[in-house]
Amino acid sequence: MKGRLAVALGAAALVAAPLVASTYHALLMLPFMAYAVVLLGLNLLFGYTGLVSFGHALFIGLGAYTGAFLTTHAGVRSLEVILLAAAVLGTLVAVPVAALCVRYVKIYFGMLTLAFGMVFYTFLLKFYRLTGGDEGTPFLRPSLLGRNLDAMPKIDYLVGPYYYFSLAVLVLAALGMWRIVHSPFGLCLKTIRDNPTKAETLGIGVARHRFYAFVISAVYAAVGGALLGPPTGNVDPTLAYWTHSGNIVFMTLLGGFSSFFGPVVGAFVFIYLQNWVMSVVPYWRLIFGAMLAVIVILAPDGLVGLATRRRPALAGRP
Amino acid sequence: MILEADGLRKLYGEFCALDGVSLRVDAGEFVSIVGPNGAGKSTLINILTGVVRPSAGRVRFKDREVGGVGPARLARLGMARSFQLVQVFPDLTVLESLQAALVARLGRATRLFASLARDREVQTGALEVAELFGLSDKGHVPARHLPQGDKKLLDIASAFALKPEIILLDEPTSGVSTADKTAIMDTLVAASQQIGLSAIVQVEHDMDIVFAYSNRIVALHQGRVLADAAPSTILADQRVLDTVIGRRAGAPRAPAC
Q1: Does the ipTM surpass 0.85?
Q2: Contact between chains at B114 and A199 (C-beta distance less than 8 A)
Q3: What pTM does this model have?
Q4: Domains of chain A, first to last
Q5: Count of pairs with CB atoms under 8 A, one residue in A, one in B
Q6: Is the alpha carbon torsion for A184, A188, A189, A190 positive or negative?
Q7: B3-246 architecture in CATH?
Q8: What would the pLDDT profile of B92-123 be if each residue is shown by its tens digit?
């Protein structure tokens, strides 16, 4: 009940933010919503299947560059088409990557995803004519639901139609993911996370389920990545850099991977903190590194875990 | 014939764990595999359930060659197992663990958007199995909070939830108190009648349990079948009794063959 109330309050706050909060805060919500989509997907792999990817920035970058390329070079401005293209491209790239990666677990899986991420980063950096190299590519203002909004002042566009479009995408993504984790498929993922040997003897195809979870998470990352583009109006290779993969793992840990909305809360706190710390001190990574250490040691279930701790204290990990 | 193994050999480097083991399980049988430590019991179970590939020999399940098909497929074909070291899903509740088995059995493991909570067949099926194993009142307890005996039961219960034709149990009562042992065995036998299981194969150290419940005993020693007979025949065979029971603990390891 408390969980539902918190979600309802959060949703209401998101709807009301552009109307009641300052433009500064409303603008900060844009990357938050994009990351929330990414993290809902990442956590299917991380929290529900037990696989930690250090390469999901690949798919964020893929989605963002899909949008940039379509708006800049192909004359496609419809955000619906862009998101669809990001999802399709995300799937196409994820299928071979997932097929290779899910044959490994633990650190080997993590390293392999990292390697693919590095390959893609280098591709973005070096294929200058296609990607614009380190300068990146402009992400022209997309049209929403067939309406060209180029005439609007940029801020009005972002905290108005674009904001609510992002919110709608986030809500749909959350509903879809909610169904997935509460489906028979979702239960099978949890059995694999907990004990793959036992899952196998029950007749659950462990490799096949890991593969599906990977591809779904990649599609979410690509869609979220595409949403990151319009607020800045430009995409560059740092979106696909491995530290970016690290950031989203950090957000997940910060909020807590063992609850559905934990990573979303993590994204929110991360973005606000980063913004605030960056405005106070120049070395925000130092602060964030220390924070990460404290979370892992003192609150392995993240902020949401701290808030909802139901488990008895003796239930420490074996 | 449900399960048949023919000339199984398994070498681990120099060490010969199984040296030409053949065995046959028919419908209606409760077969116990016994033998001192290192006799090859666990290796045999692991080969029969597809976890380990034999170096030589064949396994047939329901007139079908099953060498190397892997545990997941064997489970779908109707062969279930439990483990010597209890295997549960620590963060899943008793009911969730049983639901997972039902989801797999009903071929619904890849239903992405269906609601698990509204899947009547899976929900009631899991409740039935929990009832059968006396785990109903612990349905919402995460497996890692269960006492050892209940973990063991849950491991076996999830194998039963697959409604298999044959079940292979690797020491179903190891690590539980003597009082709990008979309780587990009674539950297990009652449950197998309920679900219409046709055969049970178990590896067991406790000779009281073995003689009380099996129709047939296969005694292994140094990777070979020492005896394969009814419990009464085994009881009369001093040579087998000496080898299997007399040196139960601390028996010497089998030499290379």
Answers
A1: yes
A2: no
A3: 0.90
A4: 2-307 (1.10.3470)
A5: 114
A6: positive
A7: 3-Layer(aba) Sandwich (3.40)
A8: 999 999 999 999 999 999 999 999 999 999 99
